[in-house]
Amino acid sequence: MGATARTDSTWRNSVTRRHDDDVWRNWAGNVTARPARTVAPRTAEELAAAVVRAASDGLRVKAVGSGHSFTAAAATDGLLIRPEGLAGIRSVDRDAGTVTVGAGMTLRRLNEELSARGLSLTNMGDIMEQTVSGAVSTGTHGTGRDSGAIAAQIAGLELVTADGSVLTCSAREHPQVFAAARVGLGALGVLTAITFRAEPEFLLAAREEPMSFGAVTSGFDALVAENEHFEFYWFPHTDRCVTKRNNRVEGPAAPPGRAAAWVQDELLSNGVFGAVCALGRAVPGTVPGIARLSARALSPRAYTDIPYKVFTSPRRVRFLEMEYAVPREAAMAALRELRAMIERRRLRVSFPVEVRTAPADDIPLSTASGRDTAYIAVHMYRGTPHQAYFTAVEQIMTAHGGRPHWGKLHGRDAVYLADAYPRFAEFTAVRDRLDPDRVFGNAYLRRVLGG
């Protein structure tokens, strides 16, 4: 359904003009933009008015979240839409098992608000700083044997399109738009609200322990099958991995002690790790030794807590990241090739390589669309040369039919991606219908979706 845009005076109240120092930067600091205008709308109608006005002035329009994407997916020199005015819980339907929230709400606040109501998402990623719209638009995911990415938990959404219409979408209402917009890359319009499926809050038993590279890779299929949520980190230059297994239990809750949690999550995973990464950047020859020390610093632990306190953890050390989704059956072969490449080329990699899984879903541009998937993510400390490492990783992953994470660094274009996604043309057809003039376009979308 359409909605009439608000008056120009309402739009002007929420917009700011550009000053010389109005530069938007993402979290990692590798992407900047200088928008001509910035708007922080408080309603879908206010946002629609801003979009119509920008389009009439010949400006492109992009919405940003909290800047946790490493690509320029949200960059624009036109109208930049900030999300903070579109936040909060709109409604909770306990009978339907859904919650509707403003698109600018952060995952942290969403998780806290759900927990206060005795509810939870089924699965989630490992950080909470993204807005819900940014997370779903780029395909943010956690790890799960049976439960998929955040976008797979969407029951409905509200979308402002290029002509100022406000569409309410679900499997029954505008179903083609709903199917595509669950991972929409910001190409179809601006999300203003999202309805998630939620369930009564449950407890997860978390078990973290070291394993050898050989034991994890040879037992990967069994480890995935035996655990609801399994992931592991391999430390380059070592034979050591840290595994994480999360499974539902009846209870009781047994959260980690405050001191132990601070040592593990803040001191070792953030404070000390950041210091040793900085040393490795300054003196690359120290990286293999640092990696061996880092791999041994994290000790086994087990605890039981509510979902978001198990799934997520703080990330204060800044980095650049590339992640590829490969068919699950190809994952360990790709990882072994990655390890051999690092050793052969004598690269210095201080960050662990992360491996997670997801079941197949039905979202056209989801990285798990149509196939059971494993994710292999590589990182480099911010300011460290990353191009040689990431390029070599990408060559390995694409040889296995890999799909790059939409919000993380990669070099793929529309020609490659159209072949990697069987429903790619379905998505671009919806885009052509909703935004024929590419009001929501930018250079990144031209590369990955075509003209």
Describe the fold and architecture:
- The chain is of the alpha+beta class.
- Helix content is 33%, strand content 24%.
- It has 15 helices and 21 strands.
- The protein has helices at 8-13, 44-56, 107-116, 132-137, 175-181, 213-218, 220-226, 258-282, 287-297, 307-311, 331-345, 387-399, 414-420, 424-434, 443-449; strands at residues 15-17, 24-25, 32-33, 37-39, 61-63, 79-81, 89-93, 98-102, 119-120, 154-160, 166-170, 190-197, 199-200, 203-212, 229-234, 240-249, 301-305, 319-327, 353-358, 373-381, 403-404.
- The chain has an eight-stranded antiparallel sheet, with helices on both faces.
- Strand 7 and strand 8 form a beta hairpin.
- Residues 1-14 and 16-20 have low confidence and may be disordered.
Topology readout:
Blueprint: H1 8-13, E1 15-17, E2 24-25, E3 32-33, E4 37-39, H2 44-56, E5 61-63, E6 79-81, E7 89-93, E8 98-102, H3 107-116, E9 119-120, H4 132-137, E10 154-160, E11 166-170, H5 175-181, E12 190-197, E13 199-200, E14 203-212, H6 213-218, H7 220-226, E15 229-234, E16 240-249, H8 258-282, H9 287-297, E17 301-305, H10 307-311, E18 319-327, H11 331-345, E19 353-358, E20 373-381, H12 387-399, E21 403-404, H13 414-420, H14 424-434, H15 443-449
Helix pairs in contact: 8-9, 11-12, 13-15
Quick tags:
451 residues, alpha+beta, eight-stranded antiparallel beta sheet
- Low-pLDDT runs: 1-14, 16-20
Q: Biggest sheet, strands in spatial order?
A: 17-14-16-15-19-20-18-21
Largest sheet: 8 strands, antiparallel
Assembly status: single chain
The value of Rg in angstroms is: 22 Å
Determine the fraction of residues in helical runs and give it as a percent range: 25-40%
Question: End-to-end span in angstroms?
Answer: 27 Å
**Overall shape:** globular
Mean pLDDT metric = 91
The number of E-state strands comes to 21
Structural class: alpha+beta
Total number of helical segments? 15
The percentage of residues in β strands lies in 15-25%
